[in-house]
Structure formats: structure tokens, C-alpha cells
Amino acid sequence: MALAVRTPRFQPRPASISVPAPPASTSLACAGGAAAAANARPRACAAAAVRASPFTEATSSSRYRRDAWSYAAAEGSSNSAPPSSDAAAAAVAAGRRDDEIALQLPELRRLLDTLRASRGRGAEGADGGGGPGRVALVGTGPGDPELLTLKAVRAIEAADLVLYDRLVSNDVLDLVGEGARLLYVGKTAGYHSRTQEEIHELLLSFAEAGANVVRLKGGDPLVFGRGGEEMDFLQQQGIKVEVIPGITSASGIAAELGIPLTHRGVATSVRFLTGHSRNGGTDPLHVAGNAADPDTTLVVYMGLSTLPSLAPKLMKHGLPPDTPAVAVERGTTPQQRTVFALLKDLVDEVKSADLVSPTLIIIGKVVSLSPFWVESSEHDALKIESSYANEAR
Asked: What's the rounded Cα separation, in Å, for the pair 162 and 212?
């Protein structure tokens, strides 16, 4: 059983559980949609046609159109026009990270000088009457711009400079004021446009120059977003930092699919894990033993690469192989693709669907409470829920 197309907004459980029809622009990757819906064993299917990513991928041409101001066309030239977005994207696609930074530095220095001059500060940052600016770490949620808080929207609209990550959607960037500058500082596997240390220095330099700096992060800044590191660094330098929380992917995506992260008689707690080992290992934080709790909902961020290692370890440590699970690519956006499967089948089904980052993984009995967890009939689904409740008693 499973389904995955662009999932509609959560709605009450229908009289009979069925696979929603895909939009006209998509098609199901699994053959025999009706047969799959009637099959009680979870199986995965996925949208075959996927539109362009809503996120600011490292080689996105729209990204370069937005922050092309920061590229100088020739070394040492301050009057030349910036290179085309295609040329900049090609440089990044070729992996020339050093070239990209070198192209940006002259324009970044000019912007700093302009900001210092407008605030009455000298070229070296000597105080000329203007106080330091401030930095806001703003969470943008999992992708849907309607999930932004009002406080986040106000901060974005008031920014002088916006440093944004890969998982900030283009719809969110559309809210940035016309007079503000945008600078991409995103990271993806194998490519970091800026190191974390460079991001720290950029935030500090522009704040010291008096700018109102907004640091946009996907999800919540303090949930696997390294917001704590940036906040600590800036506060040690005397810069005022405001954290504006965002809806973390676990909450936004679970709500989209109608999955309660906790549910009386089914799941008494929820645990967030990162799928990335700090030292690049294949066992995320070596927590599989403690995480294998049937009464806990497990949410894995950035877990595609380590899922083949994590899933067997969870089962080895006692998590039942028939535990319901779901993997969600680009959750809450029009490009969302979803794979439902039992834990024992999840790795194969995710691989078959060819999901890509960003993908969130939810593992736990609560997944079967989603109206999109397709069982042979509503009666069977309700029976499963009832059995969970009886076990809890």
C-alpha cells in the first residue's frame, strides 16, 4: 500500500480510504493504482513527473538572477557588469567554489563600504556615530510560504541584507524588499557555497557595518539549522541577535499528511534525529539502539544517505519490521512526493521511487493514522488503531 503524488492539504478521514487522483501534470510511478489501493500490504508509488524544485538549489538559475549583484565580471573591476546567471551557474556546476567566492568578494567589499558610509562609519569600521546593526535568525518552515509567521514576514520585509540557505523556497524570497540585497550561503551534499566560519564572518561584518541582517533558514533555525552556533558567535562579538522560530519540517510535513506525531495509546513521545553523522560516518549519531522504541515516533532529518544503515539497525534493536513509515520529498510544496511503506520495505521503496534531498522520514505507528495510509478498507485501518490502543492498556 502506499501512495505518493502531490499530497493535498489534510482533510478528515473519508468514508473509504482511497488513493487521491493525481493532478493533471503528474502521473503515478506505480502501475495499477486501483490495485495498489486494494492491497493491504504497504507498497510505494511516486509521482513520475516532478516540476522544478521550489528551493534555491546550488545550480539554480533563479538563485543567480536574485543575487547576481554580488558577482564582479572581471578581477579588480568595479565597473563591469556581473556575469550572466548561466555562466555563474556553470562555474558552480563545475565545482569551482573558490572561483565563486573570488567573484563575489570585490562586490561584497563595496557593499560593506556603502553601508558603513551610510551609517557614518569609517572604512575600517571605526565608529562615526552609527551603532551596530542586528541579526535576525529567521525560520522559513518546510517550504510553503503560507507557513511563515507574521514576525518572520515583517523581519524579511525590513531587511537590508538577506543571507539565505538552499532550503529557503523561492516564494519566500519573493517577500524580500526590492531595496534589499540577497546573498546565497547554502550547503548541499558535496558543495558548500560558504563554510560555516565564513557565514559567521559575513554576518558579523555586515552587522558591524550597521546593516539590518536577516539570516533565512529552512524549517526552524534551532532544529538542525546550526542557528545556535551563529547566535553564540555573534553574541560573543557584541551583536544583538533575534531568533524568529519557524515551523520545523517534522511538524509541517506531519500536519500536511494528517500524521499526529504523538497520539494517546499509540505514541507517547517523539524524537528528532539528524541523518548526518558529524564525522561523516554511516550510523547517524550511533543512536539506533536507544531510538528503537515502538511507542516513540522517530523523525529523521536529512536521512536519505544513511537510511540503508539506520533502518536495519532499528530493526536489529527491536523495532518491529512492520512498523509504518513514510519518506517525504520537498514536503508542503507543490513538488511534494511521498512514499509510504513498512520499515522492512522502506529502503527498497525509497530507492525505487528515486527520492532526492530534501527528504524527511517519519517512522512509527502513528504513520498508519494518516488518511493517506491506504489499507484494504477503513475497517482494517480502524482495527489497527484499536489494536494499538489495546496494547497501550
From this structure: 9
